[in-house]
Specification:
Strand 3, helix 6 and strand 4 form a beta-alpha-beta unit. The chain is α/β, with parallel strands linked by helices and 227 residues long. Strands 2-1-3-4-5 form a five-stranded parallel beta sheet.
Length: 227
């Protein structure tokens, strides 16, 4: 009797698994279709990013000199762009590939108490700009991310950064857009969807960190040579 009960239970588990498999089929089909479409979006966008390699290299060289001299990088964005801004600052305070000393890098969306206080007291458009004014110094680097290139709080931060003498770099969606126009330099991801633009931004961030590492590594032997 007990063995029959166990057998019935096992049959029930098997039936449940079959049901899960049947229910999951549309999701699996959707996943395959979405990934195939996303792959095609990225093929062209990555080729366009490769054309921006000189910009990435220029940023890496400038950032290596600025951070090694005690300067600071600030980064900001909204939503997924906020996550990527924090990814960039984490790579700089920590490391990307090569071991090195930590650098000063602050994500302006990461501190909940400050962000909510500023939104409450000054409004959402001022939430990054006021932090740029508080943390930034002339010559510092401000990296702003926006897939649309139109986020009002990011645009305000770009304007404030330029007023204060910071170097303002943008990671945006397709050009032209308002953020690109307000930056000293920008990489504009030529991709048709937000997901693809964010993927390109992450690749650009990693490429920037790799360029920074290469510049720092090249400078080390020079620092050891006699004058």
């Amino acid at each position: 009797m007990n063995s029959d009960g166990i057998g019935a239970d096992l049959d029930g588990i098997s039936a449940d698994r079959d049901g899960i498999g049947t229910d999951r089929a549309p999701a699996e089909a959707n996943a395959h279709a979405w990934l195939a479409e996303h792959e095609q979006e990225l093929v062209g966008a990555l080729a366009a990013l490769r054309a921006d390699a000189p910009t990435v290299g220029r940023w890496g060289r400038a950032l290596a000199g600025h951070l090694a001299a005690g300067g600071r990088l600030l980064a900001a964005g909204n939503g997924g762009s906020a996550a990527e801004a924090q990814h960039l600052t984490a790579e700089l305070v920590g490391r990307f590939r090569d071991e090195r000393r930590p650098f000063s890098a602050v994500c302006l969306g990461a501190e909940a108490a400050t962000v909510t206080a500023l939104v409450n007291d000054y409004g959402a458009e001022e939430m990054f700009a006021r932090q740029v004014e508080g943390h930034g110094r002339a010559g510092d680097v401000l990296v702003l991310l926006s897939t649309s290139g139109t986020s009002p709080n990011v645009l305000r931060a770009a304007e404030r950064g330029r007023q204060l003498g910071l170097q303002v770099w943008g990671l945006t969606g397709p050009a032209p857009n308002p953020l690109q126009a307000r930056c000293h330099d920008a990489i504009c991801a030529d991709a048709p969807t937000t997901a693809a633009i964010q993927t390109i931004h992450l690749v650009a961030i990693h490429a920037l960190c790799a360029a920074l590492d290469a510049e720092l590594a090249a400078a080390r032997p020079a620092l050891g040579r006699p004058a």
